Amino acid sequence: QVSTKCRGLWWECVTNVFDGIQTCDEYDSIYAEHSVKLVLTRAMMITADILSGFGFLFLVLGLDCVKFLPDEPLIKLRICLVSGVMLLLAGLPGITGSMWYAVDVYVERSSLLFHNVFLGIQYKFGWSCWLGMAGSLGCFLSGSLLTCCMY
């Protein structure tokens, strides 16, 4: 075996075994035939990103130190509550997508090892998987705390 392949949600990388040089390419097209798991995981991660972005934007607008609606403290509290709900909702698809991908990688790798099959394709837990889990957990916990404290 001269090279190994490594797949992720967005990229496919090939590593030369002898010199360790790695080249990564995006998948051919987002419209190409992909598995349902891959498409759903991508959709969950994109949804989590969009919701958390809006949640943090609302959180900044709800801060007391920001000069947005300075004479309306009740509205600012409601903006913070909306931010908490959005962060809470952003954490759910993020955690689900990250964990689903991680469990799928583990199950596929275990089944290939169990059946003693080597296809030259490796699934690894990269930094993006761990950061996705940590970020989603952070969104979920901060949204929970913000929602409970504002309610």
Automatic annotation (TrEMBL):
Keyword Transmembrane helix: yes
GO CC term, one of those recorded: bicellular tight junction
Pfam families: PMP22_Claudin
GO MF annotation terms: structural molecule activity
Protein localization: Cell junction, Tight junction; Cell membrane
Membrane topology value: Multi-pass membrane protein
InterPro entries: Claudin (IPR006187), Claudin16 (IPR003927), Claudin_CS (IPR017974), PMP22/EMP/MP20/Claudin (IPR004031)
Coiled coil residues, start to end: none
Entry keywords, A to Z: Cell junction, Cell membrane, Membrane, Tight junction, Transmembrane, Transmembrane helix
Listed transmembrane segments: 81-103, 123-146
Family of the protein in this entry: Belongs to the claudin family.
Function: Claudins function as major constituents of the tight junction complexes that regulate the permeability of epithelia.
Protein name: Claudin
Species assigned in the record: Thryothorus ludovicianus (Carolina wren)
